[in-house]
Amino acid sequence: MDRIPILKMGEHLLVTIQVDMHDQIALNLQDDLTNQIAKYKAKAVLIDISALEIVDSFIGRMISNIAGLSRILDAQTVVVGMRPAVAITLVELGLTLDGVRTALNVEKGLDILRTALKR
Amino acid sequence: MDRIPILKMGEHLLVTIQVDMHDQIALNLQDDLTNQIAKYKAKAVLIDISALEIVDSFIGRMISNIAGLSRILDAQTVVVGMRPAVAITLVELGLTLDGVRTALNVEKGLDILRTALKR
Fold it and tell me: What is the model's pLDDT at position A101?
């Protein structure tokens, strides 16, 4: 399996990252996401990383890239379910995920989007 | 990673199966699901299998098991995103997934649940 499924839920797209990312999966994900944002006119992308116990600079950069791509396509990015250890690693790596909103879980992420998109 | 994340969304739990299942992952998933159904009083479990290109009798049985467990705990199970090839294999294996509802994608699955839970 070299594609991560993207679930369409109303105006949002939900991606759950469970597998170890490598180059091809990451590229496919960016490709699929941009296509689906355009196709469904999605307003937001939720990325659930609760399954990730560790991250490296590769994943951090990938999340930043996705956020950048989404922003250009007029969609917000919310990263949900980050574990404390992952947050520590990201900050230690100097990746502050600028422009990415975060929430503790999917429900809170959806709440953020509901408020943000109402404006 | 030997656990599949379970996302709580309102009254539903959402599971996206992306990795090759083996015994321990399947057992952990059943364990986690039953615990979370009880903890959150969830009314339904959505299992997205759009990432699965092939299934075997093991996965088929696991889905049946999850449906059985959920039913006992008063929650419905909806399997979403099944590929045509997977459907063919399941029928050929003689697994008709009794008691499991299916939908073509998560949105349609949520629609089914919305109607079913209103009654």
Answer: 92
- Total domains in chain B come to 1
Indicate the SS3 state at residue B19.
Answer: coil
Task: Note whether residue A44 is domain-resident.
Answer: yes
Q: Rounded mean pLDDT of B78-102?
A: 90
Cβ-based contacts of B14 with chain A (< 8 Å): 7, 106
pTM: 0.87
Longest dimension (CA), chain A: 39
* Interchain contact, B16 vs A9, CB within 8 Å: no
Helices A23-40/A57-72 angle, 10° precision = 20
Q: ipTM score of the complex? A: 0.81
- Nearest-CA distance B39 → chain A (Å): 16
Q: Is residue A1 part of a domain?
A: no
